[in-house]
Amino acid sequence: MTASPPSPPSRSGGRILVDALRLHGVDRVFCVPGESYLEVLDALHDHPEVRIVVTKHEGAAANMAEAEGKLTGRPGICFVTRGPGATHASIGVHIAAQDSTPMILFVGQIATEHRGREAFQEMDYGAVFGTVAKWVAEIDDPARIPEFVARAFHCATSDRPGPVVLALPEDVLGAVCAVADAHATKPVQAAPSAADAQAIADLLAAARQPLVIVGGPNWSEQARRDLADFATAWQLPVAASFRRQDVLDNRCDAYVGHLSLGINPRLAERVRNADLLLAVGTRLGDISTDGYTLLTPPCPAQKLVHLHADAGELGRVFQPALAVQAAAAPAAAMLKALRPPAALPWRDWARGARADHLAFSEPLPPHPQHQGVEMGQVVAHLDRTLPDDAILTNGAGNYTVWLHRFYRYRQGRTQLAPTCGAMGYGLPAALAAKLRHPQRTVVCFAGDGCFLMYPQELVTAMEYGISVIVLVIDNGMYGTIRMHQEKRFPGRVSGTALRGPDFVALARACGAHAERVERTEDFADAFARAQAAARPALLHLRTDPRQITPALRLVEVEAEAEAAQ
To answer: Nearest 5°: phi and psi at 105?
Structure first.
């Protein structure tokens, strides 16, 4: 007779949940503790191999979990309490949704017997998160926790990755039952067919001015190598979509720039003039298409070949000549296997695109009336001196244009930046990156307004010994909004001035190394001291508020706006 399998042990819902996380390889969770999930915290006490990172704000915890998902390709895990904790954390869910990042947000919930009474901190999480998360559910039976967790990991990582929200009623977490664990799930990836490969090869061979656009999540190192080999063999120009510049080594001759805020006008013109666009992994969103003007929906003038992991994205905005459902890795492997024709009529087109990019990425000389630190020279210094595996993070604001334009990303998953344009992302993302890769250099770029979203996370950095370097780029205003304000209402400043604190004193009060830098020539030595500090460090860079982008000053914006009126 076959022996019966042993009966599963009786465990609380909280322990069943933590055991399910361990089964899926979770070794770190980000949280702000709450009484609604005390059973989970108690279960984690018996699993020291799972590091609990307690942030000072739920928004930061969710941002850190999202960054973890970007770095690893596995769901970042965040726990927050019900009501206010969940709404604070919603920013991370939105980032994960728009950035196609695997993430699971576990939210405490009121006891099931109190539902529907507007009990203390009660929320309908399906209604709150239903439009941004891939899946939202509330677990009402502890015996189903292994099933729900397995489905959450599968949903977060398959097709187009994204966030999942699971609500955890406190009585369910405390209930005891005997249930077997589920198996760890593996992502399901679509792959192209041989017919797809032949069709792409035929379309490329017939092109005269092709352009490859790459982006999206989960580019493994092998996929990046395959992409580089394909582009080199076919001598194709490759542009990166918004904040996906690390997909291809920017030093590669095939790389021709990024479709981003502050796009190279010559690159924009090449997108318009291309006769074939090969989009791999990217959704072709509004930033990468300059407000859907470089490609016009639903039928772009360019012949479009679109490869994406999610069939629902293919043809949703742009109708392609060829749509192929394929994740980044199998798509890149297929492209590498294609054999180029003997004649490549687009050689001069590709060389010109590369030359345009190299010219555009050279730092500009400072304006004769420039005051304070010149960010082009700061980024150029970092580009020369940082190791290839350094990770750079940022939030949102005009200050990011200098970073994206003048820094060359060399390795994969070294650019952590929100494609949804969320302020405050840079510091939490930097902490997550340094925790995951403690031996690597991690530099956070943050505008003064951006940094002030989560400045308290310097305390988290000190508490956990996370030696990130934070560059606060201070121009005394919400620069992006001021730029748009001056374009529409020149000379009528309202609500965009920003009076920040003494950033150096604030950082030192948290225990961090901190310096103020007011001249460009002082930056290199200050940065070296920050690197040697062996603890969190902040450099407060005073910049010229009139220099709104690398090539544009506010007075020019005002003059253009007034002339147009």
So the answer is: -105, 120
How far apart are alpha carbons 546 and 524 in whole angstroms?
23
Whether residue 433 sits in one domain with residue 342: no
Task: Give the H or E element holding residue 427.
Answer: helix 426-436
Residue 187 maps to a domain = no
Residues 347 and 382 occupy one common structural domain: no
**What is the tally of structural domains in the chain?**
3
Instruction: For residue 273, give the CATH number of its domain.
Output: 3.40.50.1220
Q: Is 332 left (phi over 0), alpha (psi -120 to 50) or beta?
A: alpha
Q: Same domain for 171 and 294? A: no
Contacts 24+ apart (CB under 8 A), 343-346: 344/234, 344/235, 345/208, 346/207, 346/208, 346/209, 346/210, 346/235, 346/236, 346/237
Taking the C-alpha atoms of residue 98 and residue 163, their distance in angstroms, rounded to an integer, is 10
Same domain, 166 and 254: no
Do residues 279 and 305 touch, judged by C-beta distance below 8 A?
yes
Listing DSSP states for 75-140 in one string gives: -EEEEE-STHHHHHHHHHHHHHHHHT--EEEEEEE--GGGTTS--TT---HHHHHTTTSSEEEE--
Q: How many CB atoms lie within 10 A of CB 563?
A: 8
- Looking at the fold, whether 211 and 159 belong to one and the same domain comes out as no
Structure tokens at 405: 């334009």
| Residues 224 and 87 occupy one common structural domain | no
Q: Which residues contact 259 (CB under 8 A, 6 or more apart)?
A: 213, 239, 240, 241, 242, 267, 268, 271, 287, 288, 289, 290, 294
Q: Which residues contact 198 (CB under 8 A, 6 or more apart)?
A: none
Q: Are residues 326 and 410 in the same domain?
A: no
Rounded to 10°, the helix 84-99/58-72 angle is 30
365 domain residue, yes or no: no
Q: Is residue 184 part of a domain?
A: no
Global pTM value: 0.95
Tokens of 542: 């005073």
Give Cβ neighbours of residue 201 (< 8 Å, ≥ 6 apart).
338, 339
Task: Please check whether residue 468 is in contact with residue 513, taking contact to mean a CB–CB distance below 8 angstroms.
Answer: no
CA distances from 233 to 18, 268, 356, 444, 553 (A): 48, 24, 21, 36, 42
CATH number, position 48 = 3.40.50.970
CA 429 to chain centre: 9
Buried b (16+ CB within 10 A) or exposed e, 307-322: bbbbeebbeebbebeb
| 106's tokens | 């576990």
List, run by run, the mean pLDDT of 10-residue segments along the chain (565 residues).
Answer: 70 96 97 94 96 97 98 97 94 97 95 73 85 96 96 96 96 94 88 94 96 96 98 98 97 97 95 98 94 95 97 95 96 96 95 98 88 96 98 96 96 96 96 98 97 97 98 89 84 86 97 97 98 97 91 76 67
And the tokens for 222?
């092998």
Closest CA to 446 of 368, 352, 524, 540: 540
The CB-side HSE value for 444 (13 A sphere, CA atoms) comes to 37
For residue 543, tell me if it sits in a domain.
Answer: yes
Do 402 and 520 sit in the same domain of this protein?
yes
Range of the structural domain that residue 414 is part of:
375-564
